[in-house]
Amino acid sequence: MMLMEETAVPLIALPLAEFRTHLRLGTGFADDDIQDQVLESFLRAALAGIEGRTGKVLMERDFSWVLQAWRDAGGQALPVAPVSAVLSLSLRNRADEVEVIDPAHYRLERDAHRPVLRPAGTFLPAIAPGGVAEIVFRAGYGAAWGDLPADLAQAVLMLAAHYYEYRHETGLSGGCMPFGVASLIERYRTVRLLGGSAR
């Protein structure tokens, strides 16, 4: 299975002004934007960190997911949430021949934690031996910063500030997540069952 990000969060959607305020950086100077590139990098890193911990896509963008077999042909759980639309489903065989599946044959079952691709009938289209299915979908809470739940938006700012404040620190452990951030994102985390994913 391989999940690929097809579109990126545009710079205009990132809350640079809010982040500057959060950091209490000075304003009103001619070089106010001198740190924008650094602030952008920490915001993107914080977004990625929180998305990785929660399995939730914060800012809306498109993804493609390639898999060799359905976990359940009666409904395949998607790898991230929330998903707003399935844009396409296609099957590719060993000979690299592609069949685009008519959207009438499948539907999206929306869920805040476990969105599922469901067949219109009994089963999803069969994946040929040695072939793959590719699902292209749109995920995220919205295209604008204001579309995020307030607690997740605050967690991003807090984590980005943590990265900014400790940018020269190399002694922090790999799994370091500030307590305030961890507590804000806890309810969004996907529950793992029996050693596997609930997804």
UniProtKB/TrEMBL annotation:
**Entry-linked InterPro entries:** Phage_CHP, Phage_HK97_gp6-like
Q: What's this protein's name?
A: Phage gp6-like head-tail connector protein
> What species was this sequence derived from?
Roseovarius azorensis
